[in-house]
TrEMBL record:
PANTHER family attached to this UniProt entry: OS02G0805600 PROTEIN, QUINONE OXIDOREDUCTASE PIG3-RELATED
The keyword Amino-acid biosynthesis belongs to this UniProt entry's keyword annotation: no
Protein name, as recorded: Enoyl reductase (ER) domain-containing protein
Keywords attached to this entry: NADP, Oxidoreductase
Domain Enoyl reductase (ER) as annotated: residue spans: 80-393
NCBIfam families: quinone_pig3 (TIGR02824)
Molecular function per GO: NADPH binding; oxidoreductase activity, acting on NAD(P)H
Native species: Ceratopteris richardii
Length: 395
């Protein structure tokens, strides 16, 4: 305990902070060491409990032999597929200034989690190494300098990692209230899709009322949300999906033109449906394999926003339409953005998306919920792409 330097108003710093650094920068090694290490992390944190303040001293021993473990989380034991995930006992999250601790009710799965397993989606600094980019839950502790939230508040949150766990520490600006009319558990399905779709096609590509919008993978977590929020904003929605059943689900959510990408050429169909003009905005998850066709499917002044490379990131591209039709091509990832940038997106989402959800016009679409211990099974389902909408984990 003498290792800890305690500041009355902030989280302690600790000589063993290399444990945290190791955990952030080399998650696989941390996972290995965590099972047998004798490392002790110390923290003295100021915890707000209702109106009561109490100092709490915690000791977490990162060892399976210790009884001082804090919580359960899914650990990526080595790079690989879902089978490398293991439910382990790990240290409790530390309450840092500007943060709250959430006791997680549910966490949403995202395709990026599959990349993280394989060591291909880096955890941003300061976040735990466990997968999980979004969650919902109840605030269990609040840092002294956070004034907008209190213990007991039900929230959902955008995470840089750590959702596959019982608890997570989150910067307060990454929180959103659970929307009225949505259950605490279902709220876990909203932050990542809402922030991704709003920050790309609305905030950046300026998709507007009366325009035409194509989203690829209409039955995905992203797609099911994009269809609904675009319809809410008076947009004509086109989408692609790989089966008649999924296309029907997209129509149920409001899609106007649904295209089976396995049977039809989406460019030809878009041109047919728009009198040869094309769509104004495309949200693309396929990358290289669709790049040339996406440019062909866009109208004059069209905007292509790329958020995924499911079809690769390199290829031979025909760039002439970019000049010929004055096209804009953009791409972005949500996870790597700065705290300030994400906070801005979250505020915009609260202003523009939350009313649509609270009016019941945009709903979280949940396909299946698994227990935390079944994380590997849940990821296997995500990989097979049998689902429509979101898959959740429940600690
Ligand atoms: N950049 C960012 O910040 C960000 C954030 C979130 C998500 N994303 C990306 O957005 C995409 C969707 O994410 P998610 O978590 O919602 O994934 P998801 O639910 O697993 O969905 C993946 C989708 O890809 C579709 N797909 C596969 N091949 C296709 C093809 N040839 N044409 C059209 N669609 C095809 C699948 O449709 P079928 O099942 O019908 O084949 C499925 O709906 C992923 O690529 C993900 O990495 C990016």
């Amino acid at each position: 305990m003498n290792n800890c330097r305690v500041n009355e108003h902030s989280t302690s710093s600790c000589r063993d902070s290399h444990i945290l650094n190791l955990r952030q920068s080399r998650p696989f090694e941390y996972a290995r060491k965590g099972r047998r290490a004798q490392s002790i992390s110390c923290s003295r944190r100021k915890v707000k409990e209702g109106t009561l303040y109490a100092y709490r001293r915690t000791t977490s021993i990162a060892s399976e032999y210790s009884s001082h473990v804090g919580m359960k989380a899914i650990v990526i034991t080595k790079p690989g597929g879902p089978e490398v995930l293991e439910l382990q006992e790990v240290p409790d999250p530390e309450l840092k200034p500007g943060h709250v601790i959430i006791r997680i009710a549910a966490a949403g799965l995202n395709r990026a989690d599959l990349l993280q397993n394989r060591g291909m989606h880096a955890v941003p600094p300061g976040w735990p190494p466990y997968p999980g980019l979004e969650c919902s839950g109840t605030i269990e502790a609040v840092s002294d300098d956070v004034h907008d939230w209190k213990v007991g508040d039900q929230v959902c949150a955008l995470l840089g990692g750590g959702g596959y766990a019982e608890k997570v520490a989150v910067p307060a600006p990454h929180l959103l209230p659970v929307p009225k009319g949505v259950s605490l558990e279902d709220a876990a399905a909203i932050p990542e899709v809402a922030c991704t779709v709003w920050s790309t096609v609305f905030m950046t590509s300026h998709l507007s009322t009366g325009e035409r919008f194509l989203v690829h993978g209409g039955s995905s977590g992203i797609g099911t949300f994009a269809i609904q929020i675009a319809k809410y904003n008076g947009v004509k929605v086109f989408c692609t999906a790989g089966s008649a059943e999924k296309l029907q689900r997209c129509r149920d959510l409001g899609a106007d033109v649904t295209i089976n990408y396995k049977e039809e050429d989406f460019v030809k169909r878009v041109k047919e449906e728009t009198g040869g003009q094309g769509v104004n905005v495309i949200l693309d998850n396929m990358g290289a394999v669709y790049f040339n066709r996406n440019l062909d499917a866009l109208s004059v002044d069209g905007r292509l926003f790329i958020i995924g490379f499911q079809g690769g990131s390199t290829g031979e591209f025909k760039l002439a339409p970019i000049i010929g039709k004055r096209l804009t091509v953009q791409g972005a990832g949500l996870r790597g953005r700065s705290l300030e940038n994400k906070s801005h997106i979250i505020q915009e989402v609260k202003t523009h998306v939350w009313p649509a959800i609270e009016n019941g016009l945009v709903k979280p679409i949940i396909y299946k919920t698994f227990s935390l211990a079944q994380a590997a099974e849940a990821q296997q389902l995500l990989e097979t792409s049998q689902h429509t909408g979101k898959i959740l984990l429940k600690p």
